[in-house]
């Protein structure tokens, strides 16, 4: 018996088959909590919340008429405000930021206040239309330094 066959036999005897070949059911991590503030009449924010829900987040939508004030207090410059303001994992996430960029933020844990995708570009999660070009997501600092590019999606 070759060393390779012996190793495979030993592994097969000690490791349950689902661990080797997959059990057929995907394991999901705990949903990441999100508080999303939006204007009461905005429907694209509801679509964005659904997008987050479908991608491993648990969204608590809170309609408010004070969105600009919430964004300002979170450190988002007026010229970089998005459509809604979320709080995720200790960061502010303003606008229709794609999930992959949010995950990058949460994985890297930079020393910033958060990130923002200004405006309501077509084709972003929660918005209709086709994407017209790359999206520039900005990092917003805790210390008042000017925003910088965090990611281009």
**Main β-sheet, spatial strand arrangement:** 2-1-3-4-5-6-7
Main sheet attributes: strand count, strand direction, barrel closure: 7 strands, mixed
Question: Quick one: overall form?
Answer: globular
- In total, the number of strands is 7
Beta fraction: 15-25%
Residue stretches low in confidence (pLDDT < 50, at least 5 long) are: 1-27
Which H/E pattern describes the elements? Answer: HHEHEHEEHEEE
The overall pLDDT, averaged over residues, is 84
Query: What is the distance, rounded to the nearest whole angstrom, between the alpha carbons of the first and last residues?
Result: 53 Å
Notes on the structure:
This protein is an alpha/beta fold. 29% of the residues lie in helices and 23% in strands. The protein has helices at residues 3-14, 17-21, 44-53, 67-73, 99-108; strands at residues 32-38, 57-63, 85-88, 91-94, 114-116, 136-140, 148-152. It has a 7-stranded mixed sheet, with helices on both faces.
Question: What is this structure's SSE topology?
Answer:
Blueprint: H1 3-14, H2 17-21, E1 32-38, H3 44-53, E2 57-63, H4 67-73, E3 85-88, E4 91-94, H5 99-108, E5 114-116, E6 136-140, E7 148-152
Parallel strand pairs: 1-2, 4-5
Antiparallel strand pairs: 1-3, 3-4, 5-6, 6-7
Defining key terms:
153 residues; alpha/beta; seven-stranded mixed sheet; 7 strands
In short:
By secondary structure, the chain is of the alpha/beta class. 29% of the residues lie in helices and 23% in strands.
């Amino acid at each position: 018996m070759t060393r390779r066959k012996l190793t495979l036999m030993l592994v097969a005897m000690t490791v349950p088959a689902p661990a080797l070949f997959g059990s057929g059911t995907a394991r999901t991590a705990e949903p990441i909590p999100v508080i999303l503030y939006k204007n009461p009449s905005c429907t694209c924010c509801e679509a964005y919340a659904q997008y987050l829900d479908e991608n491993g987040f648990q969204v608590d939508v809170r309609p408010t008429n004070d969105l600009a004030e919430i964004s300002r207090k979170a450190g988002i410059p007026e010229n970089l405000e998005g459509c809604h303001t979320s709080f995720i994992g200790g960061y502010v996430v303003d606008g229709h930021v794609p999930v992959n960029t949010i995950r990058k933020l949460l994985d890297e844990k930079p020393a910033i206040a958060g990130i923002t995708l200004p405006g309501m570009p077509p084709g972003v999660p929660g918005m209709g239309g086709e994407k017209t070009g790359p999206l520039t997501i900005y990092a917003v600092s805790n210390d008042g330094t000017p925003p910088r590019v965090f990611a281009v999606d």
